[in-house]
Amino acid sequence: MASYSRRILPCFWKTTKLLTFEDSARRVPCRYHQELLPTRNYLLPETVEEHRKSELSKHPELPPSITSENVPADFRFVYPEFLPDPQYDRRDSIRERLEREDMYRRRAVIDIPEFYVGSIMAVTVSDQYSPNKENRFVGICIDRGGVGLRAFFILRNVVDGQGIEIMYEMYNPTLQSIQVLKLEKRVDDKLYYLRDAPQEYSTFPFDMDPIPVPKGSTVPVNKMKVQLNPRPWLERWERQDLQGVEDLKLEQRFYDKAAKVAKPWEKYDLMKWYRENTNEEERDSIMQEVHQRKRLTDIEKSKRKTKLAERKR
Amino acid sequence: MLRFPYRARPRKMSRQRLPEEGIIVGQEGRLQRLRQLVTGLVRYERIETVYQHCDETRGYAERLIHTAIRNGDQHQHTMEMADYWLNEKDLIYKLFDVLVPRYQNYSSAFTNIYRTPIVYPGRGTEMGILELKGNPWPDVLPKQRDNRYVISNVLLQAARKDYNTSKESRKTKNELNSSSENSET
Amino acid sequence: MNFIKCLSTYATGTRSFSTTSCLHEIRKLARMRVVDNSALGKAARLSGKPARVIHVYNKTSVGTVGDKVLVAIKGQKKRAYIVGVKQNQKPNMPKFDTNNIVLIEDNGSPTGTRITVPVPSALRKKGEFSKILSLATRFV
């Protein structure tokens, strides 16, 4: 079969492209039209073989000694981007699996530490236009989201009296390093209200020293309350049930309207939650996989370190 | 994880007429109506309403039982949910003491749903029946009677067997005869 | 759409109105912050009447970082470069809290002698900004 198709398709038997009728009509001599017509949209056997032998299709065999029965309970908060997009019409299990493989591979190269909204982080990106070919930014993480390779976080800081926010993609290959300077959580999921707060709440020095967290300790929660500037604001903060904000000092009509548009029953809507989130069983299985892969990469890293140390001796 | 096909988007159940609250419109009214249906389902284990409402109720009831199985009665969020979804509070005990042990080892859905025939003449409303599995009521669908050992069937079976054996013996005889004729010629 | 709405407000005689929609687009009549140390920019800031865009020199008429605009400032028409925007940006591109401009003269040389706030590093890839970038003190 292989030799046959090689004979009739000398010019592109190696391509990974799907053959369309237009392609075949253009490139293949007339006498082969009839042969190609019925199989208009087919994949060449060589291409299939190539894909079969590629690195992507190889799944690393997990040694029997590593079994992760007890995944830490907070794992899904540390690695939320591994959970798939729960919108079922956008889901594709093969793509999700491939994306996760890519993420593991990226994580083997760059250290993406544990961080939360409210942590202070430093990110170095490669920048071809700066003289030292890199650009470092320090700021507080005000939001984190996205799924798979498109996971992102947003850093905010005030430099020379100018508020600046930069969105970084976690798995962007131009990122050189991600460092957590101060690991902590805030009481809110998103800190966009810092845009309407005085600048001192989001000012962090670029030469800040990392504050180490003792191993095994829980992540501290910063219960700081922010006093917002007077209106006008970018959003209607009084409607958002913010915990980390002081009394907003508004007229009563604002609170009345907020109470009118509030939807207190939404948290009881079990099916709404189910439709908008990954269900528990699937979440657990994915987190188990992440846990297993993390242990494997940790072992590999430690092996590499010991090898390096031996070489230095 | 729900073990039955569910709709991607919720149905709108607008204008619910409730005995205490009167007519309630919108999302809130929808949940009020569903609460009543879930409470009724847990109380009586079988309810009969509009098919679409049965289907909506099914998801909520199953999710409630599923959360109860997963988290137990010491979990605050689960207790809040049980408190909201069961209007009659004695049913919270039933949920944790009766339903959770019943469905703990199930690998299928916890409920059954049926369509009932449309009553004619009438408004043509599609009605349905929703029930918890393992309920004490008689089955909705009639059980097929096992009539293998009814006397007429036994006799027919025997007659069929006789006929087949005689047919086979005749066949073998014929074959033998033909083979002997062939050998003679 | 927002722009049309704002214009209609203008016609009815409302004095203070804003073209800043939720998209934070820099269109005509958008108010800008002058971030160089020119006397004109400082006077505009102190008087409470910031510079307003009266033309954007590109095809889409929505300005982004690096675009040239014509602004009305203290009764004068001045050209300026946008050096920071409020609009949501692509990954790795800074998003500023204000829309910043640097005033230039008609011959292309900057009016001020120093830029007081950080400037996006991506501006450096365009050659035409060398005069402005030489005034910048910090890049992000």
UniProtKB/TrEMBL annotation, chain A:
GO biological process: translation
Compositional bias (Basic residues): 302-313
Keywords: Mitochondrion, Ribonucleoprotein, Ribosomal protein, Transit peptide
Main localization (coarse): mitochondrion
Listed GO MF terms: structural constituent of ribosome
Any Pfam family matching the protein: Ribosomal_L19
Residues forming coiled coils: none
Ranges where the record places region Disordered: 280-313
Domain of life according to the entry: Eukaryota
Location(s) in or outside the cell: Mitochondrion
Gene Ontology cellular-component terms listed: mitochondrial large ribosomal subunit
Family: Belongs to the bacterial ribosomal protein bL19 family.
Name assigned to this protein: Large ribosomal subunit protein bL19m
Organism: Patella caerulea (Rayed Mediterranean limpet)
UniProtKB/TrEMBL annotation, chain B:
Record keywords: Ribonucleoprotein, Ribosomal protein
GO biological process: translation
Single annotated GO MF: structural constituent of ribosome
Chain residue ranges for the region called Disordered: 162-185
A Pfam family assignment: Ribosomal_L17
Compositionally biased intervals (Basic and acidic residues): 162-174
Residue spans of biased composition, Low complexity class: 175-185
Superkingdom, natural source: Eukaryota
Name this polypeptide is given: Large ribosomal subunit protein bL17m
From TrEMBL, chain C:
Gene3D superfamilies the UniProt entry points to: Ribosomal protein L14
GO molecular function annotation: structural constituent of ribosome
Record has Cell division as a keyword: no
GO annotations of cellular component type: mitochondrial inner membrane; ribonucleoprotein complex; ribosome
GO biological processes: translation
Alphabetic keyword roster: Mitochondrion, Ribonucleoprotein, Ribosomal protein, Transit peptide
InterPro entries: Ribosomal_uL14, Ribosomal_uL14_sf
A Pfam family annotated for this UniProt entry: Ribosomal_L14
Origin superkingdom: Eukaryota
CDD domains: Ribosomal_uL14 (cd00337)
Record localization: Mitochondrion
Family affiliation: Belongs to the universal ribosomal protein uL14 family.
PANTHER family the record matches: 39S RIBOSOMAL PROTEIN L14, MITOCHONDRIAL, LARGE RIBOSOMAL SUBUNIT PROTEIN UL14M
Name recorded for this polypeptide: Large ribosomal subunit protein uL14m
